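Reviewers of the previous submission asked for a worked example of the structure-prediction workflow described in the proposal, so we include one complete record here. The input consisted solely of the amino acid sequence. No template or homolog information was supplied to the procedure at any stage.
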Amino acid sequence: MRNRQKGFSLIELLIVVAIILIIAAIAIPNLLRSRMAANESSAVGSLRTINTGAVTYSATWGNGFPPTLASLGPANPATCDTADLIDANLGVAPFQKSGYQFAYGPLAVRAVTPAGCAAPGGDGFVAQDNPLTVGTSGQRSFCVDHSGVIRFDGTGAAFGVGAVCPIGATALQ
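From that input alone, the workflow returned the following structure tokens.
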């Protein structure tokens, strides 16, 4: 009688493991690039939301553009100091969403504060978002000011709040 073995040989198992590793080596970089692209899309959408909220704040409260990002944040009821125009992901510290850190600053702060507002607004604003880790959570940083044009820097470097978005930065198409 012959003794027949059942199962896989060590060579067959090593070949299967090698094939799985090759597939993983191809798939993982594509997954990371897709994730960064999704984070960047979310960051641009969030800047559009902040821009819309700032314009709505200016039209609603007569205080110019909001003095802080938190001024656009959630509240019940809405006031000049917390206008309930953006969600808690953007309007409550630490101002992070989808791998990006957001910053906001008013430009040319007004001398007069309207009744019902704790802080004066600005005659303009600049908002930016930078990847938390360049090359992992995102590759580009984005900026928008009161002109409404979203610009980006391909290196992921911060623009710096307190000035309009640099004209040299590439406008997002």
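The beta strands are 96-97, 100-109, 122-131, 141-145, 150-153, 170-171. We consider this example representative of the routine output the project will generate in years two and three.
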